[in-house]
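Workshop exercise sheet. Pairs work together: one partner reads the sequence aloud, the other fills in the structure field after running the prediction. Swap roles for the next sheet.
Pair: D.N. / O.F.
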Amino acid sequence: MRKINISNECRRDAEVAFGNISKRTKTVYKTISGSIGHSERRLKSTIETEPDALLQHFADSLPEALMAEDPEIDMEKAGLKLEGLRKVYLTPEKKVAYGVTLTEHLYHPDGTEKGTKPDSTVPSNIAIDGMPIRWTGKMIPKDKAMRTFVFKKSYQVRHVNGLTYDFLYDMAKKLDEQQVMMLVGGGQKGVSPLVMSNGGTPYRAFLEGRVDGDSYALILRLTHLELKSLPSKES
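Structure field:
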């Protein structure tokens, strides 16, 4: 289980654990004979057999070529087992591209593009030896948060000993009593979006607390999508 450094409203911090809330059920596939199946990656097609390449090569005679022969299938390569794959970028001429510069496209709520910016690798900011995740003091009612944000990921923050149990239980109790979620942030000032891994997506993060007797649940919810109403169009 991963570790995270988190602080409360009094700026006291502690090293605690966090992980996925639910575990996925492992599905086992079996054949009719009872043997256990397994997944493999197999080659479906090559660049030369892709639709765009076939249209460029055969032009208007493609239907006749498909009936007379099978240009959409490479009989020698189709079905080959794939291992040790690496991602590469191609030029419009289907050649390996070097020195690639990635660009991020930004969009308005109505789907129109509003601009671009160079894509950059964002370093993680939740390392336990760095600045702790802090409460920002900005609270939002729980029901409003659920209607306003699309939460992409959720992690349960867990204690690792008796002291951190009291520490996290107190945080969860305060949030549960007020039925609010607390915006938390990382970085030097404690207001930056959280980046869970190097090159990961920056997320706005909220803490949700639930308490039932001596039991508690402190949930870290991540979002990068806020629901906004579209501007009304004047008739």
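Discussion prompt: The beta strands are 2-7, 13-20, 103-107, 113-118, 134-141, 149-158, 180-185, 204-212, 215-226. What would you look at next?
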